[in-house]
Amino acid sequence: MKALVTGATGFVGAAVVRALLNTGVEVRVIARPGSDATNLRSLNVDKVLGDLRDKESLREALTGCRHLYHVAAHYVLWAQDPSIFYDINVVGTRNLLEAAREVGVERTVYCSTIGAIGLPPGGGLGTEETPVSLEQMAGHYKRSKYLAELEVHKLAKEGLPVVIVNPSAPVGEGDVKPTPTGQVIVDFMKGRMPAYIETGMNIIDVDDVATGHLLAMEKGGQGERYILGSKNLLLREVFEILGKLTGLKAPALKLPRGAVLPLAYLNHWIANLTGRPPRIPLEGVKMAKYKMHYDCRKAVRELGLPQNPPEIALEKAVRWFKTHGYA
């Protein structure tokens, strides 16, 4: 049995590839020319070139594959030209799933994001059913992923066999880029975080996220969405864990979000002029307003999602970043 994985050069995608290979699945990966293939070194996969914006390349890559894991996305908090988020995350997703339908792929798992799931306005845990709208999405990444999910739901209603997974904040080995969450860990390890804005996140081991993809393929309901998460933590608690793992002091100075927001707007404006990513991502500061805490019981109950402690995932990340010279 052969499966196609998009986004396989990335953090979550590479973890999905490793999980598939460990179960004996034959894996084909599609990547753009010039992509950093560090995460695929030593992995026995069939590599093909293609682009989510090129439908013919997608049809060719999908031919002969029974399953599709669509993990690819433009995942950053800033881009000088925001249209790239919508070209890749929305139009690219529609292109890929339409191509999968045309060539007869039996089943697809689409990797969305926790950011596309709502949070109760009065506080509390978000679930797969919490109402949310486009207006509540902070930043182009979240907006594009929300719109992409709408495309997936539409195709599911038309009969496309697809399951949606919404990972929270994965951490662990292989965060080459690194992701925004991984960058927080790297900055902590480098001593670049003397202060912080309090917020909340849900931490999960990236290997558990990968397992969740396979479980969704096997057990997920048609058109259903599943939060792939584990433990809800405050950012302060994450820093306390990192402090114990590294021997470094956790930042003690908590800044009010309102004081940092004007600096983030200024940094964003400068970044648009220079083309250099901002040191204070505006979208990150905006998102800090919300405690991204969620109820993950549906995936645990219906899929059997593993729930390894965040301390283990963070230890893996710290060790990997240190071994590979990030800090």
3D structure, described in words:
With 327 residues, the chain is of the alpha/beta class. It has a domain at 2-174 and 203-230 and 293-308: NAD(P)-binding Rossmann-like Domain (Rossmann fold, 3-Layer(aba) Sandwich). 43% of the residues lie in helices and 16% in strands. The protein has helices at 11-22, 55-62, 83-103, 140-157, 180-189, 206-219, 235-246, 257-274, 282-287, 297-303, 310-323; strands at residues 2-6, 26-31, 46-49, 67-70, 107-111, 162-167, 169-171, 195-196, 200-205, 225-228, 231-234, 253-254. It is globular and about 55 Å long. The termini are far apart. The relative contact order is 0.14. The mean pLDDT is 89.
Amount of helix: 40-55%
The top-level CATH class of the domain at 2-174 and 203-230 and 293-308 is: Alpha Beta
Amino- and carboxy-terminal Cα gap: 40 Å
Number of helices: 11
- Which consecutive residue ranges, at least 5 long each, have pLDDT under 50? none
The number of distinct β-strands equals 12
- Give the mean pLDDT: 89
- The chain-level structural class is alpha/beta
Radius of gyration: 19 Å
Largest β sheet strand count, sense and barrel closure = 7 strands, parallel
Return the CATH topology of the domain at 2-174 and 203-230 and 293-308.
Rossmann fold
Topology, element by element:
Layout: E1 2-6, H1 11-22, E2 26-31, E3 46-49, H2 55-62, E4 67-70, H3 83-103, E5 107-111, H4 140-157, E6 162-167, E7 169-171, H5 180-189, E8 195-196, E9 200-205, H6 206-219, E10 225-228, E11 231-234, H7 235-246, E12 253-254, H8 257-274, H9 282-287, H10 297-303, H11 310-323
Parallel strand pairs: 1-2, 1-4, 2-3, 4-5, 5-6, 6-10, 7-9, 8-12
Antiparallel strand pairs: 9-11
Helix pairs in contact: 1-6, 2-3, 3-4, 5-11, 7-11
